[in-house]
Amino acid sequence: MAFELPDLPYAMDALAPNISRETLEYHYGKHHQTYVNTLNDMIGGTEFADMELEDIVRKSSGPMFNNAGQIWNHNLYWRCMSPDSGKEPEGKLGELIQRDFGDYNRFVDEFTQACVKRFGSGWGWLVQTPDGKLEVTSTPNAENPLLTDSTALLGCDVWEHAYYIDYRNARPKYVEAFLEIVDWDFVASRLKG
């Protein structure tokens, strides 16, 4: 089975000024597309050819894992943002953030630190553990919560290609801008139990 680049749930310029059309053209249109093309080239004629993406991420290693992981990570990342955001999480997600972080601002601080302090390339995550607790984590390169028992609720790409056009080397400003456009309804839809 061949993987395809999923359609964005918004127009290429819809996240501006937080994330520009130019960034999306490169990040989504070039980087993400390259991961898809490369993985498709790699899996042909292998035991991975008919696997679901999540299974490839869990069972592969090396370059195949890197491309599969980046596809999965980016598929989630694009869905985590919306031009119609601008609010704090409500309902069950808001309650869980209050319970596990104290308040929304403490969550923002912890999430921002996880993203900013990730050395080199990687991801910042809000995850739900098997016992229902929310935690902030960070992973290097293409790694993600699929490799754990936790469920990824929110993922923030902190590879330079995610922010360099708009923010140059100012990763903290990018993370702040990202958090302003999080689609909390989508994030809440990923909660278990």
UniProtKB/TrEMBL annotation:
Among the GO molecular function terms of this UniProt record, one is: superoxide dismutase activity
Under PROSITE patterns, the record lists: SOD_MN
Q: Does the keyword Zinc-finger apply?
A: no
Question: Which residue ranges does the record assign to the Manganese/iron superoxide dismutase C-terminal domain?
Answer: 89-190
> Which EC numbers characterise this protein's activity in its record?
1.15.1.1
Domain Manganese/iron superoxide dismutase N-terminal, which positions? 3-82
Q: Membrane-spanning regions, if any?
A: none
Q: Which UniProt keywords apply?
A: Iron, Metal-binding, Oxidoreductase
What is a single Pfam family found in this protein's UniProt entry? Sod_Fe_C
Q: What name does this protein carry?
A: Superoxide dismutase
